[in-house]
Amino acid sequence: MLTANQFQQAAGIGDYLRDVWYPHIVAAMNKFGINTPLRQAHFIAQIGHESGGFSRIQENLNYSTGALCSLFSRRISKADADRLGRQPGEKVVPKVRQQEIANIIYANRNGNGDKASGDGYRYRGRGLIQVTGRANYAALVNQLGVDIVADPDRLTSYPLAAESAAAWWSNHGLNKLADSDDVDRITRIINGGTNGLADRKSRLSKAKGILCST
């Protein structure tokens, strides 16, 4: 069984985050078959990246104009990116503009309605694997036993943030890809591309060094 100390070292986190997350991570992994050192190493690495080192369980929409253009050039116009993105002198994009960003970039995707529906912000990324979109929320309702479509903020609780990540992982066949040590394909399925691949690989190397060394 994965110990608290092994989890802490594999994740590269301090004592507080270890204590906050360890029981929920272990319970989630046990429930969804993330039960070998290699599977656990891949899971910890990927959710570590997605959550900013287990420090964030809700999508950060504090994008600069440049980041919006770089990451979402096919979904948002240059004019909207310039208008909505973080402006000179701002530390944080105001909430009303973050809402509009999400409603634009996630409109008509993953079961969301159009921009006016508000689904983009309502079903923004939450949990340790950043579940995004109405359809992806709905797909987890039965497994979690909680109506996260009606109350999406439930995914920001520690137990459901961990459990939703493990359920999504299992549903997308990532245990099998972890068995073949295929970090690139796992990343593409989670991210839709290869954003953050270098960090994901670095985290995986650390986790494998702790969990797969014997």
Quick tags:
214 residues; mainly alpha; Lysozyme; 2 domains; 0% strand; globular
Overview of the molecule:
The chain is mostly helical. The protein has two domains: 4-56 and 126-211, Lysozyme (Orthogonal Bundle); 65-122, no CATH class. It is 57% helix and 0% strand. It has helices at 4-11, 15-31, 37-50, 65-71, 78-84, 95-105, 119-122, 134-144, 158-171, 174-179, 183-191, 197-211. The longest helix has 17 residues, at 15-31. It starts with a helix and ends with a helix.
Percent in helix: 55-70%
Backbone structural class? mainly alpha
**Which consecutive residue ranges, at least 5 long each, have pLDDT under 50?**
none
Task: State the CATH topology of the largest domain.
Answer: Lysozyme
Q: Tell me the number of helical segments per DSSP (H or I, 4 or more residues long).
A: 12
CATH class designation of the largest domain = Mainly Alpha
Mean pLDDT: 96
> What is the distance, rounded to the nearest whole angstrom, between the alpha carbons of the first and last residues?
14 Å
Overall number of domains: 2
Q: Helix and strand string, N-terminal first? A: HHHHHHHHHHHH
Characterize the main sheet.
none
Kindly state the number of beta strands. Answer: 0
Quaternary structure classification = single chain
| Radius of gyration, in angstroms, nearest whole number | 17 Å
CATH-derived architecture of the largest domain: Orthogonal Bundle
Label the overall shape.
globular
Q: Strand percentage, roughly? A: under 5%
